[in-house]
Amino acid sequence: MIGQHRIEGYAIISADGMIADAAGKMPDAIRNPADQKFLQAELDRAAAVVHGRHSQEGGPRSASRKRLILTRGVAALAGDPANADARLWNPAGTTLEAALAALGVGDGNGPIAIIGGTEVFGLFLPLYDAFHLTRAAHARIPGGRPVFPGVGPTLAAEDLLARQGLKGGPQRDIDAAAGVTLVTWER
Questions:
Q1: How far is Cα 158 from Cα 133, in angstroms, rounded to an integer?
Q2: Of the residues 7, 30, 50, 93, which has the fewest C-beta atoms closer than 10 A?
Q3: Residue 77: helix, strand or coil by DSSP?
Q4: What are phi and psi of 77, to 5 degrees?
Q5: How far is it, in rounded angstroms, from Cα 51 to Cα 116?
Q6: Could you give the C-alpha distances from 163 to 9, 10, 52, 156, in angstroms and in order?
Q7: pLDDT tens digits, residue range 13-33?
Q8: Of 2-6, 153-157, 171-175, which range is least confident?
Q9: In this predicted model, what pLDDT tens digit does every residue of 39-68 receive, in sequence order?
Q10: Number of neighbouring beta carbons within 10 Å of residue 132
């Protein structure tokens, strides 16, 4: 937790643990309407969304959400010229608490939603109160970008979450026909 905020991660991954292709783009093979419906409902309750420059949730309300965009392109914090509700944030320059305060996010406004990419998901590994891991079992992304640093042929995302002290809840079929399941991992 950061202040009164839970830290919650959200990712859909391929069978081989990837969130994007080698160029950082999310392929259609892991896009799923049931997952998007779940994600949008979850982001509606978030106080802020945190992501890297390639990770954006889209959707009808995305422009109205407060967000932190991680970048090494600023020293600490800067306004986002494209979005008044966003701040560019370099974690090496200032704390998450300071970044949230600059964004106008006070305690009790809901969880902080982390939506990727790989380095962003990895940065928050020690802080997650929950991680909502959706898996598209029929999709593979050879040479893709993993959900967390180190995930690959010898380390599954679930194993890494368990090593961080999170425990997987029951698996839910959110789109059984497409082989898409969701497990929420909690501390």
A1: 9
A2: 93
A3: strand
A4: -140, 145
A5: 5
A6: 16, 18, 24, 11
A7: 999 999 999 999 999 999 999
A8: 2-6
A9: 999 999 999 999 997 676 666 677 788 999
A10: 21
| Cα 144 to Cα 14: distance, rounded to the nearest angstrom | 10
Q: Which CATH number fits domain 7-186: 3.40.430.10, 3.20.20.70, 3.40.50.1000, 3.40.190.150?
A: 3.40.430.10
Question: Residue 1's pLDDT is what?
Answer: 60
SS3 state at 153: coil
Helix, strand, or coil (residue 146): strand
* Alpha-carbon gap, residue 184 to 172, rounded angstroms: 9
Cβ atoms 100, 48 nearer than 8 A: yes
Helix (H, G, I), strand (E, B) or coil at 101: helix
The long-range contacts involving 37-42, CB below 8 angstroms and separated by at least 24 positions, are 38/132, 38/134, 38/174, 38/182, 39/10, 39/115, 42/8, 42/10, 42/113, 42/132
Cα gap 101→53, rounded to integer Å? 21
pLDDT of residue 2: 73
Q: In this structure, what token pair is assigned to residue 162?
A: 């368990």
- C-alpha to C-alpha distance for 185 and 187, rounded to whole angstroms: 7
Q: What are phi and psi of 49, to 5 degrees?
A: -115, 135
